[in-house]
Recover the amino acids of this structure.
């Protein structure tokens, strides 16, 4: 498995397992099967509601001697309702208890959006805290303190624009090593990936297969479908691989990290095997032309004009 260096002491496997929407009862089996197949990188988050079951699987594969803690790369994310500086450490400690781990490899600020304590998803503007009430640099200080305490080896951000990273770098004592954002041929974000790489920040692409199991409220009838694109299908046929493998190998070939979610053993294996495939430069260039700047996760959940959040301020575009 290709790895990508984050700094002089850590390297992250270029393909990991996504766990959003992996349901109770499924996620234990999926994580265990994935690690048996060879996955060493698991992408988690407190808000996915399944970290305790993932922790059970991690404990069992380690107890069975299939893998050691040092061989695993575990990422988790701080939810939006714990952005006050003093809330960050308890949130991470809860995640560590659930995952049955002493430390994370990477802890990310999930969204540049703050919610009131105890609110999982906003029902009205009252549920938000403005970025004046919960400034991102202060949340970041909370994450930095977790590195000092050895609770996580690395920290990073998710869903951050170039502008928000630039602002964070002004005050950060510890630089972010990662920005996790949506990436696939219909949302290539070339400028953002280039900017992050120029700053020594690596980029993980989420929803790389188009997140077909995303909640219905995030779907529209005319949303484009990656699996249907003739160029993707032609390339799949040329290499004798699946459309999903084309998307995953494209992501790795452009030096990004990719975290497809699956709970199906056959697809887990297929996705893992994509990391060993190379696409030639012509095919990379053909996929490079498919950008629609289309988001499957469009951020509408995080709009509250009253508290200063619009889609324009979220994505800075
Ligand atoms: N930072 C953030 O804000 C953020 C946002 C979204 C996602 N993420 C992370 O990124 C991960 C991946 O994104 P995602 O879950 O949105 O979507 P995704 O990985 O693009 O797509 C998942 C869907 O694809 C199916 N699938 C998986 N492998 C397949 C294959 N080889 N062929 C056909 N279908 C396949 C899955 O079904 P089966 O399970 O039945 O195989 C599931 O329905 C998440 O799980 C999460 O860890 C982070």
């Amino acid at each position: 498995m290709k790895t990508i260096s984050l700094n002089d002491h850590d390297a992250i496997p270029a393909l990991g397992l996504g766990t959003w929407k992996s349901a109770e009862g499924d996620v234990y089996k999926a994580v265990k099967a994935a690690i048996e197949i060879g996955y060493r990188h698991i992408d988690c988050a407190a808000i996915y509601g399944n970290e305790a079951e993932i922790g059970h699987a991690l404990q069992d594969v380690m107890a069975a001697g299939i893998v050691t803690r040092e061989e695993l790369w575990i990422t988790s994310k701080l939810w939006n309702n714990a952005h006050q500086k003093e809330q960050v450490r308890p949130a991470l400690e809860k995640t560590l208890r659930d995952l049955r781990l002493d430390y994370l490899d990477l802890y990310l600020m999930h969204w540049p959006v703050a919610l009131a304590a105890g609110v999982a998803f906003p029902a009205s503007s009252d549920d938000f805290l403005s970025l004046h009430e919960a400034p991102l640099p202060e949340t970041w200080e909370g994450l930095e303190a977790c590195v000092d305490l050895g609770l996580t080896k690395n920290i990073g951000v998710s869903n951050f624009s170039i502008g928000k990273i630039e602002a964070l770098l002004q005050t950060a004592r510890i630089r972010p090593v990662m920005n996790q954002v949506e990436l696939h041929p219909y949302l290539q974000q070339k400028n953002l990936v280039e900017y992050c790489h120029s700053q020594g920040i690596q980029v993980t692409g989420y929803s790389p297969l188009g997140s077909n199991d995303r909640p219905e409220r995030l779907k529209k009838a005319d949303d484009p479908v990656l699996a249907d694109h003739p160029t993707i299908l032609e390339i799949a046929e040329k290499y004798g691989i699946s459309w999903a493998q084309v998307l995953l190998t494209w992501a790795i070939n452009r030096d990004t990290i990719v975290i497809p979610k699956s709970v199906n053993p056959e697809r887990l294996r297929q996705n893992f095997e994509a990391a060993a495939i190379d696409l030639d430069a012509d095919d990379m260039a053909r996929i490079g032309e498919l950008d629609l700047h289309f988001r499957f996760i469009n951020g509408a959940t995080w709009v509250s004009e009253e508290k200063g959040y619009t889609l324009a301020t979220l994505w800075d575009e």
About this structure: The chain has a mean pLDDT of 97. Residues 18-21, 43, 110, 158-159, 180, 206-214, 242, 244, 259-264, 267, 270-271, 297 surround NAP (CB under 6 Å). The domain at 3-220+254-273+292-315 is CATH 3.20.20.100 (TIM Barrel).
